[in-house]
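help with this:

***
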Amino acid sequence: MALDLKSIQEAAKRIAPYIHETPVLSSDLLDDMAGAELFFKAEHLQKVGAFKARGAVNAVFSLADSEAVKGVATHSSGNHGAALARAAKLRGIPACIVVPDNAKQVKKDAIESYGGEIIECAPTLAAREQKLNEVVAQTGATFIAPYDDKAIICGQGTVALELIASVPDLDSLVIPVGGGGLLSGCAIVARELSQAKVFAAEPEQADDAYRSFLSDALVTSHEPNTIADGLLTTLGELNFGVIREKVDEVLLVSEDDIVSAMRLVWTRMKQIIEPSSAVTLAAVLRYPDKFRGRKVGLILTGGNVDLASLPF
């Protein structure tokens, strides 16, 4: 599978029966605050409550029957695990999800609700990878990485296909960045189908993409500490290769910026989004000179919020 527009368009056809074509939302009040026209792609209303459903379905349904029969596996403490469990259930194959033992119960419940088998491990990356390797060796399952995977990237890129089809004359596209699957997939689409500048939005306290982008070298030393728990991971190698070529700028936002933007979307748009989704609006409001007077697409990536741990 190539990392190009054609593969993303093929992914869109492959996943169409299994996902929502999510709406594009707007708010006059937020337009006035930003001095721009804002178009919010509502992936928090996607299956499993996040854009991750797209990549997971594309990856699972891209497998040959001989690969799929033994199931799929990954390590995840968040939306990718639930998305992969759901995609596997749709194809009628098993899914083993390695989850750190300190993961929130709401995340574990989501994985189990889609039929995924949870295998717990210590809450370190090394422990997750070791346990995953054991699972793959025992079961023969195919490892589906959360972001550093061509099928995942192409699936996530379908978000931009839909957004640009709905609003074809965007000037800017603002996308959260964690591992970089969504950002790289959408950047490929934007470069081919629009004139929009592509901005990544990232927490200051999880700024590996920013540092990688400036240094032109992948940063792997990373100690994130942000409320945006979906953006804690470092960039994948495939993702960074696309990002360094096709993304215009990485914009950092503070924790206060994120909480303020999240509150605005909850109270003004009446949409429940998680903190990782709020970094896009936070970036537009923090850097008004980059967006004033422009048509701006923002991706709301997910709505899986732990209601017991709200920041307001």
